[in-house]
Records
---
Amino acid sequence: MDKPREECGLFGIYNCDGLDVAEETYLALYALQHRGQESAGIAVNDNGVIAFHKDSGLLPEVFDEKTLNDLGGGQIAVGHVRYAPSDKQERANAQPLVMRYVKGTLAICHNGALTNYGEIKKELEQGGSIFQTNCDAEVIAYVIAKERLYTGSIEKAVQNAMKKIKGAYSLVMMSPRKLIGVRDPNGFRPLSIGRLGNSYVLASETCALDSLGAQFVRDVRPGEVVVIDEEGIHSNTEQCQENTSLCIFEYVYFSRPDSVVEGVSVHIARQRAGMTLAKEHPVEADMVCGVPDSGLDAALGYALESGIPYGTALIKNKYIGRTFIQETQKKRERAVMIKLNALSAAVQGKRIVLIDDSIVRGTTCRHIVQMLRDAGAKEVHLRISSPPFLYPCYFGTDISSKNNLIANRLTLDGICQSIGADSLGYLSVEGIRGIAKEAKVGFCDACFTGNYPIEVPKGPQEDKFSQKIVPHKG
Amino acid sequence: MDKPREECGLFGIYNCDGLDVAEETYLALYALQHRGQESAGIAVNDNGVIAFHKDSGLLPEVFDEKTLNDLGGGQIAVGHVRYAPSDKQERANAQPLVMRYVKGTLAICHNGALTNYGEIKKELEQGGSIFQTNCDAEVIAYVIAKERLYTGSIEKAVQNAMKKIKGAYSLVMMSPRKLIGVRDPNGFRPLSIGRLGNSYVLASETCALDSLGAQFVRDVRPGEVVVIDEEGIHSNTEQCQENTSLCIFEYVYFSRPDSVVEGVSVHIARQRAGMTLAKEHPVEADMVCGVPDSGLDAALGYALESGIPYGTALIKNKYIGRTFIQETQKKRERAVMIKLNALSAAVQGKRIVLIDDSIVRGTTCRHIVQMLRDAGAKEVHLRISSPPFLYPCYFGTDISSKNNLIANRLTLDGICQSIGADSLGYLSVEGIRGIAKEAKVGFCDACFTGNYPIEVPKGPQEDKFSQKIVPHKG
Amino acid sequence: MDKPREECGLFGIYNCDGLDVAEETYLALYALQHRGQESAGIAVNDNGVIAFHKDSGLLPEVFDEKTLNDLGGGQIAVGHVRYAPSDKQERANAQPLVMRYVKGTLAICHNGALTNYGEIKKELEQGGSIFQTNCDAEVIAYVIAKERLYTGSIEKAVQNAMKKIKGAYSLVMMSPRKLIGVRDPNGFRPLSIGRLGNSYVLASETCALDSLGAQFVRDVRPGEVVVIDEEGIHSNTEQCQENTSLCIFEYVYFSRPDSVVEGVSVHIARQRAGMTLAKEHPVEADMVCGVPDSGLDAALGYALESGIPYGTALIKNKYIGRTFIQETQKKRERAVMIKLNALSAAVQGKRIVLIDDSIVRGTTCRHIVQMLRDAGAKEVHLRISSPPFLYPCYFGTDISSKNNLIANRLTLDGICQSIGADSLGYLSVEGIRGIAKEAKVGFCDACFTGNYPIEVPKGPQEDKFSQKIVPHKG
Amino acid sequence: MDKPREECGLFGIYNCDGLDVAEETYLALYALQHRGQESAGIAVNDNGVIAFHKDSGLLPEVFDEKTLNDLGGGQIAVGHVRYAPSDKQERANAQPLVMRYVKGTLAICHNGALTNYGEIKKELEQGGSIFQTNCDAEVIAYVIAKERLYTGSIEKAVQNAMKKIKGAYSLVMMSPRKLIGVRDPNGFRPLSIGRLGNSYVLASETCALDSLGAQFVRDVRPGEVVVIDEEGIHSNTEQCQENTSLCIFEYVYFSRPDSVVEGVSVHIARQRAGMTLAKEHPVEADMVCGVPDSGLDAALGYALESGIPYGTALIKNKYIGRTFIQETQKKRERAVMIKLNALSAAVQGKRIVLIDDSIVRGTTCRHIVQMLRDAGAKEVHLRISSPPFLYPCYFGTDISSKNNLIANRLTLDGICQSIGADSLGYLSVEGIRGIAKEAKVGFCDACFTGNYPIEVPKGPQEDKFSQKIVPHKG
């Protein structure tokens, strides 16, 4: 549906209570499924022997009762859901990456994107290394493996590796006897620590903790290495730094509204975005509505601030999953019609403020506006709860190519006209900076401003092999 | 999730425009999937030769691109989605029922429940008939086949059959050259006529028309037989009667909010229910919230009427499908936690009015109330946008057995206490009668009042064979 | 591979030893899989409640551990494997046919073909009956259901039904408390009784008894109704008659060589056919070889009688199953190459006598002869261990249409030339009559002679609906 | 069925005729399926971009029409079928191994076993390498990648790598523009070159060439590196050596009888083994029979030499595939009964010479002998067409652990008694050496003699992670 896409959801558990770690990981990944729908995987560590299963597909496509049971019990487990950049559903790239190196086994789950991936890879290749995937995780695995040769412990090797790898990386890793959580020094991607009885868990978002009934302990700090073993939780903060830059889009779209990121509720942040939007772009209207589900929270905020009644203008078919019609359907309009329907009785004759979180190419937006007009809306005022996308992301968000971004091609008026709205307003950069002001970290807003918090690569690296796989059923 | 369940969604198309009738039917059934998730089927009629495919499972589990293409093209098609009463997922009972009789082939899709099913079946068996399913559709097929022996046309045979079969039945049928739509004289279940170019369609709900871009023509009248053939649309209203009784629960829960049933928007009816509820059971509170998705529309109405701000208290995981955890999970509480999460930041310290459409057993409700309290809600006032269920339905709604109905076991105070709410209010029977007052038909509210509009059977008929099938993946 | 095809394999068990009847039936059907590869089904009767599962596909495609376990335990079970005539893989036609009628439930498995199917069906339709399949079993079910109305027991009803249905039918049926085996008065298709501890079993062939470790008791007599219940085994022979006509092709091709049909070993009968063939069509040669697997037994006989050494000329790929290449591959030659390969080292420079059981269209034969020549064979003398097919079968064998039969289009010389053999000899009609001379029944050899033992219908009945289903994987 | 197991089948094609390389590879792997049933994979190279698909399962389980088509067209393709040692069906280990290194991509298919796998792996790990599989192919990939750093071409790098890796390895590899075939200097495993029009193919066995209609060119020489590119075929024989040692068991059991290995027909070699066996262990008897399919060829030879008639004593169910009954069935006897049945009519009262190719644990053998006695055989004389297994294989054959080998536990008499045969005779070591005497290579017979042609490792290497996957259906 023409949205930016996040790359991954991570989970890890260190079991001190006789829990079924595979099932806990499965349930936690369910809560994180919105962070990645292309592949899923779980690895279970039973006294140093790792059993794992991963494949492309949604979690319930990858795991059934038998597959999950076959993983067996264990003391530690890690899990991953993944959004595959570009259109390739690559089974070879599914995570966790499970590997054996000089000190035994290591399972790695990664969320983010390295900015020096190509550089390190080239250097490794020139040392004779081979690559079987297109994942950052494989490069990270190599760097850790090499560092481990000269260091006395896995945590020290990880810290050393952090000096080499640049960019965005939240990691959940499992060595034979330890569960390890890492956030890059900028803290681009979130990672939280929770407690379930005597057991510890790590998860990309707090909603996964809630789904297990785990208590939130704290966020992993940007630059911190957290190690959980039989003696409890250890922390190393050597790589922590002053300047941090959490992806602001985690609040706008990626995270689930019931998650709390760096101390700020995502739902509240979105509501605030809507409130600020109402201040910045007021309009006379009869009803404020959100595009389901991405615009609903901000719409509540806009309504609250503006005093215009909140209502429902669009109904989403909750059964739409991976239907092949979406693929074969050439007419994008029809794809939108399958998914959304306008509520004539509610919009008939009304002036509507329609809220969404972002516009990428603008095509879906155009169909929705038309749908509302066909349903009898008198006016449609589009309000976007984030600034226009203008710059590519190098930290793990896939926003489509620069040329496809409507804001790069058209002026504000041009976009409004192209979409067919009566008026259009984007939240300002200032505005968005204020939606999570209590957070204990700084933000990255480079996609709006071009102010990249760290050095970024020059061009994309192209890959030379692909694994084409059969589409999943269900 | 402890809800009453409707039995079916119907669709039919008579093609005058070279449409791909299988694809149109597939898309329409997608829009009707909420009416039945246990099985799906499509039958395509190409010059009298019927190709069909049906199986247990959700639509995209039953049909993939190949299966749909294999149905080929045709002039007429019918489709069905089904909720299987009781826990049996019976592939043998999937519809359309395709049969051959003295005058050729007939495909039948049924929504509702016959009240004299057992009686007719017994009579047919005593005439030597055999039964291969547990469906009303099979009994209806027999009655039509027998009537057809003494009548000159299929429509006349259908009219005669309507004199024999009692109860709730909306039918979409396909004879070699005709598409036929029928509603029982009481009009228990909805059925609408639409137009797509020069082609006609029949659908249980108007949302299916919208999803195809078809224009709504009118509802089939209670008691009417509509026949569509190459000469256009024909109507016979001999069985139409004064007293009609559309299931009021179509407005409360079954139909999609974007559907219009008998001239009344379902969304508006639900909002009204919420408004009346606010008048009948006011309370001082800080926020009005709905249980997603069933209570959201009524919550909007309650907020509107009461002036208490509308907000979001619960987030639903939109990826929860057929996960086996739901089956294996003994602790119901956990199943609720996977599906819903409370929004602490929004409910913390607040007095919440929580709206849902109905309570069946009360177990889910109890977990939700607890979840809100755990999230910091100061008070939770439960408001239900329909009266208490007290009586069984014989017309195609599966409300669970009478003994399981909490309202039959406990007083209002008892229910409130059992659920753990601070207060509890149900919409009155009067109240619910008013939610769709512009409708051109009467209503059945027997589940609340026991006033059955027609005679009902004495006891349940038990079946003697079952088809046990493999649970579907995904 | 261009062979005539049998329609079905039957099995039934009456459990007196706490056996897992579903598993026993599964194993028995495995031994009967050669009798039908298009669909499979098992029905289990637990105190009158029947659970069943059936689908298109090979046995291990239709049943996995879960499906089989889901059938549960029971006192009686019946199973069926089916070859679908024509190219339609119709799931709707899979058996057992499980039905409910005035006296409870009945599960029916049928092998054969009724000659008055169309007639009875028409009559039933004119009485208002409806048909949901294209199976003889459904017609048989109706006739039994109607007879049951006027008779005091199921066995009596079956006997009366036998007076109405004409043609070939072996039946294994299951009523709430009885297992019933029937053979038509001519005994076209085989059916045997076995004993497994205190339990009784019925099976199309004795190889199924062997696979369970069951003891052979006796064949069901042509015209006999065998009823097995808690009091043991009962027999009614009212419909038995003087003239019987077992399909001679059961010995030539259909039955497994390790089965014993009417007292004669199928392997021995085939060996004898080869011996007689050697007498009737001797030739000077260096090696006698069979086309695997259909010609191997007769080749042994030919070698034995002629004194020419038996050898191997063709190797069959034992992993060839349902590969889609067979479907998409237009060049039949390639399909043969995937399946068979000539053994150059064995045939180089040799004069080969090549034995097969029959020629239908001759295409495969031609490719095989060419393959042997390419491998260096000096001469290839084709010998067929049955007479030429000249007449259609109305009793359950699908030999391809009359026009496709090469023996109807060409003279012996013409066939030989078309196939490219150096000489060609068919077993004589006399010869084939002698291969099972100890059998206690007469034979039907109408496909060779046109002497139909009973009246046959005039033309084929065309069906008006088809169920097109997704091809199976694996 | 208690047999030694080979590890792999290889295929490669360099396309000069516009062939569909994916389909040709699929067909060739079909012909090689007997060499590995646990996983299958194909990689297609289209101008340097490699598309691949691999998974655990039989070829038609891994590939369907869509998966194969999705691989697209290309100039080069390689394919692999694999037998997984031990019981783990490891998807992670499926081949081809597709990897990227400093000079682009490389796809590797391996058959054999390295004797210094553990050694090299340890060395690589100490240099910081990581391992994602348990395959020799991964180690080989690393060694080649490292050699490539200091050499000007892939073929030179391969030659250098051959100096480091020890043991048995036939390789089929694909670089961006070359197809490469390699055999280790001992030539433990076979590899042949064929020509299909202007295109070249490489295959483990000639039966794969036959199935494509390709002409046999020659075997790759032990120690030879064959490179096929747009200029044709190139050969480097620097690593060729005097002493070669083809696995003699390729003739006895592994290869298909219609293959020609090093100039000797496998079928003829087996027949000869039977003839020598007849000379070494004559016996008075009425019929010579083979255990299907492994003993049939040798039985023909025994019959030929002894003058005792060849016959059939055991029938094999040709539909037995991956049935779960085999897994769940605890009683081995029953598993044998499902697969094999004795032909009473043929063995009744006879003295049988029963031929098989080998005995591993002896359990299956015991059941078969008993089965023949139950069927009425008067005497059963077991003759084995190879010497007793006494020593483990380090070159890619999985014979079960030393302790399980019956010949290590019992004397000849003890084995005979344990199996219940009337007499027992094994082919002598001398005898087996003579079965392929025209071959242009020497043989490895270490499993019989303990004379390992090269140094072998001390103990087994244990792996630390496993991928447990769902058993495949069908």
---
Amino acid sequence: MEHKHLNILIIGGVAAGASCAARARRLSETASITLIERGPDVSFANCGLPYHIGGEIAARDTLKVHTGQTLHNMLNIGVRTLAEAVDIDRKGKLVAVRSASTEEIDWLPYDKLLLAPGAFPVRPPLPGIDDPRILTLRNLQDMDRIKTATASAKKAVVIGAGFIGLEMAEQLHKLGIEVSLVEMLPQVLPQMDAPMTMLLADELRKNGIDLHLGDGIESFAPEGEKLACKLASGKTLAADFAILSIGVRPEARLAAKARLELGTRGHIKVNKFMQTSDPDIYAAGDAVETFDRITGSAAAVPLGGPANRQGRLAADHMINPASARPYPGSQGTAIVRAFGVAAGLTGWTRKRLEAADIPFLSMTVNDNNHAGYYPGASQLTLNILWSPVDGRILGAQATGGEGVDKRLDVLATAIAGKLGIEDLAQLELSYAPPFGSAKDVINIAGMAALNYTDGLLNPVRELPEDASVQIVDVRPKPLFDADPTPGAINIPFPMLRAQLDKLDRSRAVVTVCALGKTSYFAARILAQNGFDVQSLSGGIMATRNPRAAYKLPS
Amino acid sequence: MEHKHLNILIIGGVAAGASCAARARRLSETASITLIERGPDVSFANCGLPYHIGGEIAARDTLKVHTGQTLHNMLNIGVRTLAEAVDIDRKGKLVAVRSASTEEIDWLPYDKLLLAPGAFPVRPPLPGIDDPRILTLRNLQDMDRIKTATASAKKAVVIGAGFIGLEMAEQLHKLGIEVSLVEMLPQVLPQMDAPMTMLLADELRKNGIDLHLGDGIESFAPEGEKLACKLASGKTLAADFAILSIGVRPEARLAAKARLELGTRGHIKVNKFMQTSDPDIYAAGDAVETFDRITGSAAAVPLGGPANRQGRLAADHMINPASARPYPGSQGTAIVRAFGVAAGLTGWTRKRLEAADIPFLSMTVNDNNHAGYYPGASQLTLNILWSPVDGRILGAQATGGEGVDKRLDVLATAIAGKLGIEDLAQLELSYAPPFGSAKDVINIAGMAALNYTDGLLNPVRELPEDASVQIVDVRPKPLFDADPTPGAINIPFPMLRAQLDKLDRSRAVVTVCALGKTSYFAARILAQNGFDVQSLSGGIMATRNPRAAYKLPS
């Protein structure tokens, strides 16, 4: 067979690199496979790093999925750690590898080369940035440094409220450290649309995280024994250490030096088989730019799932190109937990669609994670975005207590299957009282979206500022009295049909309730009685008070 | 508008009937809507009944989603309970409704009629079947009777180990009652394939449920103060009461009397808009026969999800036929929890595919519900069945601790989207350590299925009886010694490459491990070294000991 003595060289030994090595070995017992890793560890669980810092993952070794030794034993591959690839001779098909200990350079030959160098945390050139107390988290050594810092720390500043920032804030807090979380944008989890992050922000505050939103870091300076973090607003936060988690950049220096084609944001460009502009050089993982599964546009998604699958696909194409299957593109499915709240997304968000000028419609609904009559039900908020052309789902976001991951996974699958809002309405999902509802929140989102496109539901995202609009809150009076909707009159839903004369038919109406469901029912009554009426989409829960529904008697 | 004064009559006030009433009112404020219910309650949560018996749902009223009064207040509909529809005059468009209290009959007119009568528990004509201690569970009154029986009972026999039987066995056990569970077929949950129910049976036994599988009920008789349940095997189980949960039959008497077309199994036949053979008479819910979403063949799925959506669709077509969307068919997605184990299915099973002579391929895999390095991970077993023609998923079954519902819902969505094994391999599902894995068990199932169709993996469902086949168990020696595989030699995986000479190349080999993953790796090594080799699909966990993997060091 052609690949009998194929010589495969892999640069980078974590998610994509280790996956490629393992898959290559399954496909060929005779290939020579060598894995080069700059750091001391291969195949570690980088998504687990925050949880060892916080102590949830007690044993450090748990994070080592493999060592060089186990990779050798299991896969019969050569592993060189503390060895950095510094140059590629594409013509000669050689990679220069420098040993960290001896500084000696070896030129290693390859038939097929995989670049899986990952991405590194952004460290902007701010005043004071070189203070050793400003830490980032990429590998086990970074983790160890942070863990050491936590031992004597009372106060930490986490800069950047993305996925890593949120996980770090939570885990540091669990260690009893006072945490300030700083985010330049006016919301946590900037990957998501702001309204879908309200519950997360509320949960962080409830748990004592000191949130600073819409306020970027400007500089660092020592202040006594502390590190002073100065924000754009002029505020100064003094801490024992800071975590910088404002994003990552692709490790593309080697690729650039080898004149491989790069994307506009500096990633290594690959085709559907993970080949770079040199067909014998593949790339996979956080360093690459592939394409978006929905639109086909360029996309770089630095997450573990895509990295693992890309590394595996690269091995398929290196060894059996004829039967290798193309990468279907990335969706950016992601999730995070902070204390009792989870939030996540798949596909496109409103802000990205708006920025890309892609037409879309949006619907936000709330419902229980499982049958409301079964104990322990909690509320979920779900937003879906779809194409007005064909109804196809473009993106989804979810937040709540339990069951967020399930809804995201169903919607990620719906996107992969090119399903539309009509399909969501009719999904037949598993239902028993501990697990779901006869109509799952996903069905309800699909039904509400169809109501919208059918003209039955006329949603509005925010309460009108225009005082001529009549705002009608249809919640029960005790709930309205406890948390009145500004500018609204209260007509509890069961009384609405009898009290239509309280409203002025010549003026527009917006109906409001906790979840956006009863307000829709009310809007149907009003519309059929000749009113110009809109319903507040997602209700108070999705617009003003993310715990509005938790106040409802169960 | 056409439907201004449409007169809608609905027979049956639970899932399908109440959904139809509510949707019809949203679509038309002016329609006259009347709901007729034979029992005293409308819109109750019938899936919750077992959980009130067991006390998990403490307050009985929690199960009443609506009362006649709240339906009137919210929806402005007329509700008549304790009123049975006994005849239909299709020509005159009238339904004869008999009051349970007065026995008087009213003929009520309709423009559009919905039949949503549900299904009743099967009560076969066995000797002694009329003993009042033989109870079934369909409504709140049945529930009350069982609850009363539990008050003084020490021992109960549950006959039929389907969804209701399992839920009842669990809930009665929680009340401190000794439970025998009797099932004619040699497995619990006969809706699923036997291997996928092993864990469930094991969990029931571990919790002290006295299982009698492959043993049907033959007769009942009083025995002292007890009820003696005599089984086909000759065994007699004495109990204070018995629950009969061996299936349901559609309530189609009224439809038959009205000469509406029935299906071969006695259900009311409907088209995609839920119309019976009389276009002004609709039917929905447990009593109807619709079609299978995958094959298009006739299908009757007596579950809450389809019932709710069918009732809603019927209202759409009654009021706005031009814009009504067709029912996409049923998949039979279902799930049950018994103690710490969940099990469920979506689409077709092996036994149904075999019976229908539909070609299929099958793959069973095991993996963690979330990242193994994060605390609390538990094992899941997943079986997928797909078409050898195009790879399309025909069915899936899952069992395990946490996360079963999520995988079923993803696979139900994959089926709705006509996805294939290649798509499963590349689904981009949500991953953070508390929620998932970089490669979810669903990805792994797709990858394993592709390995199978690509000829990389040659799975075998059972250990060979043929002594000439060499069985090689590749688990670590301590695990093998603790629970040896019958007839196998033990070569721990890392030693395999060096110990190939222990094996006879002229004889076939089957490799075995706990999960079916390492045995695949071993089979790849052997195949590439010239061996005729198969790997035990799903490992020991899916074939012999459903807790095999739980023994592995974490």
